Amino acid sequence: MKERICRTSIDILVLIGLIIFFGKTSSSFFHIDMESEGGFFYTLAVFLAGWILGKTTGGR
Q1: Dist CA 24 CA 30 (whole Å)
Q2: What is the pLDDT of residue 13?
Q3: Is the pTM of this model over 0.70?
Q4: Where do the domains of the chain lie?
Q5: Contact 20/30 with Cβ under 8 angstroms?
Q6: What is the chain's pLDDT, residue by residue, as a tens digit (60 residues)?
Q7: Up-side HSE of residue 7: CA atoms within 13 Å toward CB?
Q8: What is the rounded distance in angstroms from the CA atom of residue 53 to the CA atom of residue 49?
Q9: First-to-last CA distance in the chain?
């Protein structure tokens, strides 16, 4: 159980890191204003992390 929680938290950190990384790179690549687009990527990251956490801690 403990091992599963550790693995899940690492997965979440990697996922958030990837989303932030892609958010920053796509913003600079497409010349998008980070103020408006950054909020969307961070919201998405938080939503996905919460969903994964809920799924794994729920055990289903």
Answers
A1: 10
A2: 81
A3: no
A4: 2-58
A5: no
A6: 667 767 778 788 887 777 777 666 655 555 545 455 566 777 777 777 777 777 777 654
A7: 5
A8: 6
A9: 14
Structure token pair of residue 40: 């969307």
Number of residues that this document lists for the chain: 60
Tokens representing residue 29 in the block: 């690549």
Query: For every residue of the chain, which 3-state class applies, written as one string?
Result: CHHHHHHHHHHHHHHHHHHHHHHHHHHHHCCCCHHHHHHHHHHHHHHHHHHHHHHHHHCC
Residues 48, 53, 9: CA angle, nearest 5 degrees? 100
